[in-house]
Amino acid sequence: xxxxFRETLEKFYPxxxxxxxxxxLKIFFLFLLILGAVSFIYLRSQNKTELEILKxxxxxxxxxxxxxLISMSRANVDEEQLNKIQxxxxxxxxxxxxxxxxxxxIRSFWFLD
Length: 113
Description:
Layout: H1 2-12, H2 22-73, H3 79-109
């Protein structure tokens, strides 16, 4: 009985266990480090692209608000049109604020300042 138990243990637990050499472990961690750096650089470049798109949208919205303000300053516009233009300006300003928040979040998170 004792020999059967010993033989079974030796099948699953050999005398020389499998060892990972220190150099292989260093290579593995170096690979993980490089993979992390490449992932960070890739994601940062993607967010730079998104940041440029948001900046373009921001400029477009600023121009739209400017145009609405110019049209409001005309003397021949009645009260209804002024209210409509004012609501459009408020919507555009809200979008501008949201875009500015996104731009600031992307800049601060990905160190793009």
